[in-house]
Design a protein that fits this description.
This protein starts with a helix and ends in an 8-residue tail after the last helix. It has a two-stranded parallel ribbon. It has a two-stranded antiparallel ribbon with strand order 3-4. The chain contains 5 helices and 4 strands; from the N terminus they run αβααβαββα. The chain has about 100 residues and is mostly helical. Helix 2 crosses helix 3. It has one domain: Arc Repressor Mutant, subunit A, CATH 1.10.10. The structure holds a DNA duplex (13 and 13 nucleotides).
DNA sequence: TGTTTGACGCTCC
DNA sequence: AGGAGCGCCAAAC
């Protein structure tokens, strides 16, 4: 990963509205990483624990939480704080997926 | 340098 | 609707 794409990803995460989620592939696409969805996950994995960055708004394309424990529990809790229900370990993408084309 | 390993995604069935 | 199979991309061995 280049430092540039890493910053790109982090910038994008910062622009994701509260109460919405995005998929790894979506972020990769927006960051100019093409099909580098896995790379996005790798970048997030290297983030420090108490980071300010809203990494919890990122789930896989199916809406499932891709993080393994114990991070998974934290992510679900934080999503809950934003009124995003996580049922059966997954988020309803139909309702909560962020669409950049719809301005708030 | 070749193989394994994922915080992934799409297509088939 | 949900799982299996396969493609992808870097990093870690």
């Amino acid at each position: 990963m280049s430092i540039d794409s890493r910053d790109q990803v982090l910038a994008i995460l910062g622009s994701v509205p509260e109460g919405t989620v995005v998929s790894y592939g979506q972020v990769a696409e927006m960051a100019g990483l093409g099909r580098g969805a896995r790379q996005v996950g790798r970048i997030l994995k290297t983030l420090p624990e108490g980071t300010q960055i809203p990494w919890h708004r990122v789930v896989n394309a199916s809406g499932y939480i891709s993080v393994s424990e114990p991070g998974k529990t934290r992510q679900i809790r934080q999503l809950g704080q934003e009124n995003i229900p996580v049922i059966g370990g997954r988020v309803d993408m139909k309702k909560y997926r962020w669409d950049p084309s719809e301005n708030s």
